Amino acid sequence: DFLNALHEVGPAFGASMDDLERRRLNGIIDCGERHKRIQERALLLVEQIKDNQSPLVTYLLEGPSGSGKTAMAATIGIESDFPYVKIISAESMIGLGEASKCAQIVKVFEDAYKSQLSFIILDDIERLLEYVPVGPRFSNLILQTLLLFLKRLPPKGKSLMVIGTTSVMDFLETVGIFGAFSISDHVPNLDREDVKKVKGISVSRFGVLKQLDVFCENELDYAVEEVNEISIKKLYMLVEMAAVGPKGKSAKAIQSGQEKIDLNFFSSI
Amino acid sequence: DFLNALHEVGPAFGASMDDLERRRLNGIIDCGERHKRIQERALLLVEQIKDNQSPLVTYLLEGPSGSGKTAMAATIGIESDFPYVKIISAESMIGLGEASKCAQIVKVFEDAYKSQLSFIILDDIERLLEYVPVGPRFSNLILQTLLLFLKRLPPKGKSLMVIGTTSVMDFLETVGIFGAFSISDHVPNLDREDVKKVKGISVSRFGVLKQLDVFCENELDYAVEEVNEISIKKLYMLVEMAAVGPKGKSAKAIQSGQEKIDLNFFSSI
Amino acid sequence: DFLNALHEVGPAFGASMDDLERRRLNGIIDCGERHKRIQERALLLVEQIKDNQSPLVTYLLEGPSGSGKTAMAATIGIESDFPYVKIISAESMIGLGEASKCAQIVKVFEDAYKSQLSFIILDDIERLLEYVPVGPRFSNLILQTLLLFLKRLPPKGKSLMVIGTTSVMDFLETVGIFGAFSISDHVPNLDREDVKKVKGISVSRFGVLKQLDVFCENELDYAVEEVNEISIKKLYMLVEMAAVGPKGKSAKAIQSGQEKIDLNFFSSI
Amino acid sequence: DFLNALHEVGPAFGASMDDLERRRLNGIIDCGERHKRIQERALLLVEQIKDNQSPLVTYLLEGPSGSGKTAMAATIGIESDFPYVKIISAESMIGLGEASKCAQIVKVFEDAYKSQLSFIILDDIERLLEYVPVGPRFSNLILQTLLLFLKRLPPKGKSLMVIGTTSVMDFLETVGIFGAFSISDHVPNLDREDVKKVKGISVSRFGVLKQLDVFCENELDYAVEEVNEISIKKLYMLVEMAAVGPKGKSAKAIQSGQEKIDLNFFSSI
Amino acid sequence: DFLNALHEVGPAFGASMDDLERRRLNGIIDCGERHKRIQERALLLVEQIKDNQSPLVTYLLEGPSGSGKTAMAATIGIESDFPYVKIISAESMIGLGEASKCAQIVKVFEDAYKSQLSFIILDDIERLLEYVPVGPRFSNLILQTLLLFLKRLPPKGKSLMVIGTTSVMDFLETVGIFGAFSISDHVPNLDREDVKKVKGISVSRFGVLKQLDVFCENELDYAVEEVNEISIKKLYMLVEMAAVGPKGKSAKAIQSGQEKIDLNFFSSI
Amino acid sequence: DFLNALHEVGPAFGASMDDLERRRLNGIIDCGERHKRIQERALLLVEQIKDNQSPLVTYLLEGPSGSGKTAMAATIGIESDFPYVKIISAESMIGLGEASKCAQIVKVFEDAYKSQLSFIILDDIERLLEYVPVGPRFSNLILQTLLLFLKRLPPKGKSLMVIGTTSVMDFLETVGIFGAFSISDHVPNLDREDVKKVKGISVSRFGVLKQLDVFCENELDYAVEEVNEISIKKLYMLVEMAAVGPKGKSAKAIQSGQEKIDLNFFSSI
Ligand SMILES: Nc1ncnc2c1ncn2[C@@H]1O[C@H](COP(=O)(O)OP(=O)(O)OP(=O)(O)O)[C@@H](O)[C@H]1O
Ligand SMILES: Nc1ncnc2c1ncn2[C@@H]1O[C@H](COP(=O)(O)OP(=O)(O)OP(=O)(O)O)[C@@H](O)[C@H]1O
Ligand SMILES: Nc1ncnc2c1ncn2[C@@H]1O[C@H](COP(=O)(O)OP(=O)(O)OP(=O)(O)O)[C@@H](O)[C@H]1O
Ligand SMILES: Nc1ncnc2c1ncn2[C@@H]1O[C@H](COP(=O)(O)OP(=O)(O)OP(=O)(O)O)[C@@H](O)[C@H]1O
Ligand SMILES: Nc1ncnc2c1ncn2[C@@H]1O[C@H](COP(=O)(O)OP(=O)(O)OP(=O)(O)O)[C@@H](O)[C@H]1O
Ligand SMILES: Nc1ncnc2c1ncn2[C@@H]1O[C@H](COP(=O)(O)OP(=O)(O)OP(=O)(O)O)[C@@H](O)[C@H]1O
Ligand SMILES: [Mg+2]
Ligand SMILES: [Mg+2]
Ligand SMILES: [Mg+2]
Ligand SMILES: [Mg+2]
Ligand SMILES: [Mg+2]
Ligand SMILES: [Mg+2]
Predict the structure, then answer these.
(1) Choosing from D19, D58, D69, D107, which is the catalytic residue?
(2) Which chains touch C (3+ CB pairs under 8 A)?
(3) Which of B164, C53, D117, E188 could form a disulfide with B240 if both were Cys (CB 3.0 to 4.6 A apart)?
């Protein structure tokens, strides 16, 4: 089954640069000290590979949903400047069986072993594992495959960096994936201080770039008090919704619209 | 298996407008403030999509059985005026295996990605998942597929709105489907106040439209005291049964017939 | 698998009138007030369908084994005078796999949707589900199919009445089958008062009709004291066994023979 | 699968008279009052069938291993004088899969339905179900098949008696097989009084009939005190072993040999 | 599946005399009273078969790993002098599926039924069952097969002795294998007294027979104090290791070498 | 399935010397007394085989991840000078099914049985078993195969040494693999004393051999205080990372760089 699947894998599986760019659709903005320190460390690991000090470095980014793990991993991949950078993501394997997914994963690693310097992102490992907390259920075939690749040294003279992302750290620890990574970091949600600094998000994705100053200083302070922890992803959504509110009203109205929305309308978000 | 299934999916799977209309067979009547506010919010989300603020908005309607979730979702779909509106419902996939159902779902989403503005209803998600609380059992293949589609961004320039409905919120939360939706709302049963306002339901479905005033003012008050919470769907059933009672008797008789029925005959409903 | 099975289903699956008659082999005798009231309600529901008030009425008869659920459902089906009356029963699908059984069920419903007025009996739902309390185990494929058909509206202009029977109410409630029926009733065992009225059962099935008066007045009173609850089916068995006792003895001997049998011989029944 | 299996079943499955005889290899000796009463009742049930009082009588013999259930059922089958008497036993289906076993069972019942009077022995139902208490595990396919056949009426004019045997009553009760039988009896082990009466077992199976008087009166009394409960099958084994002891010694030596064996040698039996 | 497997079984499956000899590679030495008594009883059972007293005797040897069960069973098989002696062992079925293993077992028994006197060893029943305590998991197909063969009488005029071995008595009891054997015995580890008597083990397996007197009297006494319970198999290993120590040293050196090894080196054995 | 798999196994499966060398990529340095004693014992066992004292010696190395078990086993294999030395490792069977893996294992053992002296390494037994603690799940097919091979004697005149490695001792004990090995040893992490002695690790893997003295005496003392237990593998990683730090700085800078890194940067390792 697996062997058939392996045979059928097309030659160019794995993500191109474009694919990586799509993972940080909203760009990378300043998210506070904690985010910055992780990025620094990641780049140091990239150096370690380039310096030929290690044939294999495996690095796990874990943290709550939406905290920016995938975007960060994509950024590091892009900035690494390695000749081979691929992302393994369940999204591109929807509906495939275990054996086929496994074959795809094998293909990406085998291809990586052919490049001097390679970079692989294992995005949302729980999704790759088809994990569901009820049971729990997951694909042991894929799990075993990942466990092995995370420890397997590339052939002589080749080097590989692997970055994984997950939001179910506990589970990864239980099944031994966490232990199989050599280093790991926690990517946190934004706290009040971080949020305050984020004001001035540009909603830039849609054709025209609109530099919105969606929160007025006071309201922001007030809103921030309400928020204890929020992911950067949710904050973007809030801004997008706020942007709908005005509809031909003045900039002033935007802010008042935002206030109403933030505190009443989106309370369930 | 899945690939075969995918290949066999006919070109026009997914519901037409007619199909949507069938989901609100009894029309949409005034069900009180709480229902109204949900509909408003849903339409705001539709605007957000149209304004190009978000490429993907996912919205979950949860609440007790018969509270009107499906009818409401169909209504929003119809009123959205999007070029592509489809409903994914277990009803149209009776007896199919996991892989085939999965293929159907993939087809609807892939088709949606081709339209500028798309609208997909995931109706009765627990049925799509073949969920049963004993075990619990469910299709992990379909679950993983939904989890991925709920987070996957449409291609550049395309926008998608997804509305899901469910009456087993707890389960959806456990398996992560709830968390995968960006927003959610609770669709409640009718309480006493709501029921009082509903008097004057028209039993309009059967050939001739009969505008029945099935409860007389006093009886209604009395009956309403008995009822603590009732779904709009059950209320319709009560009215239908009441309508059988008379059989050529006077309108007056209807009401007395109703009273007897309501309090004695249908006590087990 | 299911599709193959569906294709192989013969054209005339489902029970004919004869089949229904076999379900009330011992006829229908007076079993007390409680039985009577259920039958009345059922016939009212039949009226509701005929009056075009509802396109779909689903009615569940639950109660202990042998209490008369199947016979009652068959009787209502026969008396409904609907053009399409079928019984779905595990008995006629012995040894078939899930997919085949499912296909049979689909066939009966699809056929029903073609008739103006249809009547379907889902007999012994726990057997259809291949239910066993250990585990518990059951066919989720069949369960999901039933859940969907119990809620699916027939096409415009067609009406359908479904009567289900079961003796494991708890399980049906847990898996949501109970909730999927719009109405339900409990079919009880006979209590002492009911039994007293049953005297004079005719053991009529065997070639010659023998009108036996198997209990003499006093003995009956005595025997009835012993019995707390008994199903109508068991009562028939008692009478059959009593009828063996005499063997060419006088009517007097029957009764004495019966007494001995009832209190000693059948104590373990 | 099942359908294939059904097709492959040879025409003459089921046991012949010879087969039944093998089930009571050691003959039937007097085992005390309790055994006798069961046999009487069984024959009364046979009469009930013959008298055309019942189309279907199902009778379960349950009790500890070796207590004589199978031998008793075989005896009743032989003595019934019915034209069709078959035994369904796991022994003749070793190594077959569920579907094949199920097909065999179906075949025996279908054949029985063709005879005026039929008699089927379901021997060692737990073995037919491939039951093992760990889990517990068992074949639900076979269980469902038995549940249905135990309730299914033979065609008009045909009558069927079914006798089942089991030594795991609890399990049969849990899964509903016990409830599906109309009557049941407990076949007990021998107690001290029963054993005393058994003295004088003839070890008759082996070519020459040897009428051994293996216990002398005193020793028996003594030995019997030791034994609290023993199955008739174990008692036979004891006698067989005792018969080895002598080897050309006097009858006196037999007894002394027996005594040594009984109390020391076989303590672990 | 099973039927295919059955068909493919070669004609000569089952162990030859050679095979049996390999099971007692280290010969049979005096292991104390308890071992002796078991062997006596086993030979008495062999007599019982030969004397035609029983068509089927089943005997279970249970005890800790390495206590000598297999060697003992092989010895009895060899000494029985029966024309058909076979060993059924998982070792000769490595990697086969359930059905194939089952077919092999069936073949050995069917062949045995053709011989006047047959002897079958079911070695390491837990391995035959693919037992693992986690779960627990085991092959129910093989279990059911063994349960049936342990009770099935050989054809008229044929006799069969079965000896089983196991070191997981508890499990065999739970699943009913223990109950299916007519007799059983516990094969113990050696205690201090037994070990003392074993001095003078000949390490005879390797080409030249070396009669080593590996423990000097005093050291043995000392060592034996340390050992509470040891299997005969472990004792052999100790001797083998001790034999490595010397390497051209004097017999004296052997013992001092042994002492060092026994108490320090092999403490973890 | 297995038989097919067995047939497809290529002729030269199993690791060559090169393969073994790759397992101790960082060489073998002095890791303290405890490591040394294990190696001594292992070589003694090798002698035992060569001396023809035992046809089969099985030795388990267990201990925390990275403690050097695989490197140690490879070293012993290389130094044994046996004509047949193979490593069975999950790494070379990624993505294969149970049956295929099983076939590979069988092949290696069968080949080993053909050589006078053979050496097999079962590396990371938990990975071979596809073990995951959730459930737990594992391949029972492979487990049973290993259990049998660990006890099966090679053919007459052949000898085999098996070394297994594992970091989940508890599990191996539960499923009986531990008991199936004749001897076992614990390979510990380095404690403070061990670490102190390790200073002067040569980072020799990368083209040019750099003899780094990465810790200055004082810092080492300080760092060692922080570390309670560390695996030799982690220590190597620390050194590699430290080696990245300098980048054209003086040796002095290396150490200060190391200090910063050790205590702050790698705290999460
Ligand atoms: N400094 C930043 N780091 C990460 N993401 C950022 C940053 N600034 C902005 N973003 C934006 O925030 C979003 C983070 O979402 P992302 O998908 O990376 O989160 P995630 O942690 O992977 O979530 P999930 O657990 O659901 O996979 C992206 O759209 C990204 O463009
Ligand atoms: N304001 C309203 N909102 C929703 N439904 C309404 C409203 N007014 C009338 N209805 C009618 O009430 C019925 C609601 O049933 P619907 O199937 O939508 O409930 P549901 O919550 O989806 O139930 P289920 O959980 O069983 O799927 C429909 O027939 C619809 O026509
Ligand atoms: N008033 C009555 N209602 C129902 N059954 C009656 C009545 N009078 C007589 N009977 C007879 O009683 C028997 C009832 O058995 P039936 O099979 O219907 O019970 P059941 O509740 O379906 O049992 P089970 O739970 O085992 O399926 C039938 O033989 C029927 O002919
Ligand atoms: N009165 C008797 N009733 C039953 N069996 C008797 C009687 N007298 C002697 N026997 C002998 O006793 C033995 C009873 O064994 P049998 O196999 O019937 O027991 P069982 O209860 O079916 O055991 P199991 O539970 O193991 O199937 C038979 O060999 C039978 O010939
Ligand atoms: N008196 C004896 N009884 C049994 N075995 C003996 C005796 N004397 C010496 N031996 C030797 O001891 C060893 C016993 O090992 P054996 O394989 O029979 O143990 P086992 O109980 O079957 O172990 P396992 O539970 O692992 O299968 C054999 O090598 C055998 O030659
Ligand atoms: N004395 C030593 N013993 C073992 N390994 C050593 C020694 N000295 C240096 N090493 C190096 O340490 C590393 C030990 O890693 P190894 O893979 O053997 O650990 P492991 O215990 O097998 O880990 P895992 O449990 O993850 O399989 C190897 O790179 C090896 O070259
Ligand atoms: Mg992500
Ligand atoms: Mg709905
Ligand atoms: Mg019924
Ligand atoms: Mg029996
Ligand atoms: Mg053994
Ligand atoms: Mg290792």
Answers:
(1) D69
(2) B, D
(3) C53
